[in-house]
Amino acid sequence: MNFLLGSTGLVGSLLVQELKNNEETFLAINRRKVDYLSDDEQVVIDEIDNFNFFDAGKSYISLGYPLKWNELIFMKKETKKLFYKVDFELILNLAKKLKKNGCHTLAIVSAVGANKSSNNYYLSIKGKLEEELLRMGFSKLIFARPGHLLGKREKPKDFGTHLIELFGKISDPFLIGKLKKFRNIQAKMVAELLIKVSSEEYKDDTYIIEFNKIKKLT
User: Fold this and answer.
1) What's the pLDDT band for 152 if we cut at 50, 70, 90?
2) Which of 15, 162, 189, 207 could serve as a FRET partner for 153 with CA atoms 20 to 30 Å apart?
């Protein structure tokens, strides 16, 4: 069984669309019921890390604590605790359960600039999570490291998000070469690339997706 964890967010909802377009069977584990999934396609559970996985195949994780745009730069102490609990502890626990139950391919949404040594708390936690997942020995491991995600969101955009997207329209053409990965990117493209790399078209290995490029990590 293919599992999807985090189908209510921007990338997650688009992963649902892509999986359905490819006619792939999957089960989404959610905290709340969503109308674009049938009852056969979702399980609603208050604490998703309490779900008992079974016969796990390909799995996708698109989970994250909801941060405001400015919290990507600076988080208060309490926010750091909440962010760490979801973006590190919860995801790592889910990955361990998936691996234990046979998951061979894991695709996860990380962040551009993820680095355990970063002075930025957000990026350092993303980097530490990637390092822990690498140690777990998945046959195929895929990290999507997108910049700011573009697309229709469930909640209205705040002023900061509008500003980021406006700045991106001006700056993106100048971000070339190694800087291209910092461009704003359509969330739909991220979902499409995650599905593509998880297919048999790509052999078992560790991959990263940076903007529209698929590369081996090593």
Assistant:
1) confident
2) 207
The tokens describing 195, both together, are 């599905």
Encoded amino acid at 127, one letter: G
Question: Under a CB-based contact definition with an 8 Å cutoff, are residues 30 and 207 in contact?
Answer: no
The answer to whether 56 touches 27, Cβ cutoff 8 Å, is no
Q: What is the pLDDT of residues 120-134, one digit of tens each?
A: 999 999 999 999 999
CATH architecture group of domain 2-216: 3-Layer(aba) Sandwich (3.40)
Mean pLDDT of 84-99: 97
* Amino acid residing at 57: G
pTM recorded for the entire structure? 0.94
Is 117 within 8 Å of 127 (Cβ atoms)? Answer: yes
Long-range contacts of 131-137 (CB under 8 A, 24+ apart): 132/92, 133/92, 133/95, 133/106, 133/108, 134/206, 134/217, 136/95, 136/96, 136/99, 137/99
The gap from C-alpha 190 to its chain's centroid, in whole angstroms, comes to 9
Domain ranges of the chain: 2-216
